[in-house]
Amino acid sequence: MVFYFCRMKYMRLTQQQLEELHPEFINFLATQSITAEEWKTLKKEKPEVVEEELDVFSDLVWEGVLSKVEYLENISELHMHLFHLKEKEMKLFSVKVMNPNIDLRTNEGFGWFKRNFQSDFVEYLTASKAYGEDKNLDKFDLIQQGAVITKGDLYKWFDRIID
């Protein structure tokens, strides 16, 4: 017996995410010609096939999400990395706060930033970078590093004040 293991491109969805996507997963199984009865049997008798199906479904979901993502934010205590994911390149606004008493992740710290964004305690950098071979994988790597998908309000605000 030969087993073919497909390597995941992204990462498996969490149990909670899979539960939220239950109707979509049922449709996915139907496209694989797997009925509810067959799925139950696979879970008992061939858990490795179940694992592969979950991996394939997860990659399909990630692929769909990543192809639509336009903005990502990665905010830490003293840094903000705000990305606009355009068609051919990603643009970055990077903010560094030189006040060790500030934590941008808190309301208080972010309030301080809004009042002091033009002071000498705040540095800015803008950059752009072309995507590598796989645009969605580049986006996923940023998410793996802590970025979250947003509507881009903060990026757009910076875009307005910097112009």
Quick gist of this model?
By secondary structure, the protein is an alpha+beta fold. The chain has helices at 15-20, 22-31, 36-45, 47-68, 107-116, 135-144, 153-162, and strands at residues 71-75, 79-85, 89-97, 122-130, 148-150.
Strand content: 15-25%
Query: How many independent structural domains?
Result: 2
Structure class: alpha+beta
The separation of the N and C termini measures 63 Å
Output the strand order for the largest sheet: 4-3-2-1-5
Number of helices: 7
What does the average pLDDT come to?
90
- Share of helix, binned: 40-55%
For the sheet with most strands, the description reads: 5 strands, antiparallel
Which regions have little confidence, pLDDT < 50, spanning 5+ residues? none
Alpha-carbon Rg, integer: 21 Å
Order of SSEs: HHHHEEEHEHEH
What is the 3D shape?
A: elongated
Tally the beta strands: 5
Description:
The chain is of the alpha+beta class and 163 residues long. The protein has two domains: 15-68; 71-162, no CATH class. 48% of the residues lie in helices and 20% in strands. The protein is built from seven helices and five strands. It has helices at residues 15-20, 22-31, 36-45, 47-68, 107-116, 135-144, 153-162; strands at residues 71-75, 79-85, 89-97, 122-130, 148-150. The protein has a five-stranded antiparallel β-sheet with strand order 4-3-2-1-5, with helices on both faces. Strand 2 and strand 3 (89-97) form a beta hairpin. Helix 4 (47-68) crosses helix 6. It is elongated. The protein starts with 14 loop residues before the first helix and ends with a helix. The model has no long low-confidence stretch (mean pLDDT 90).
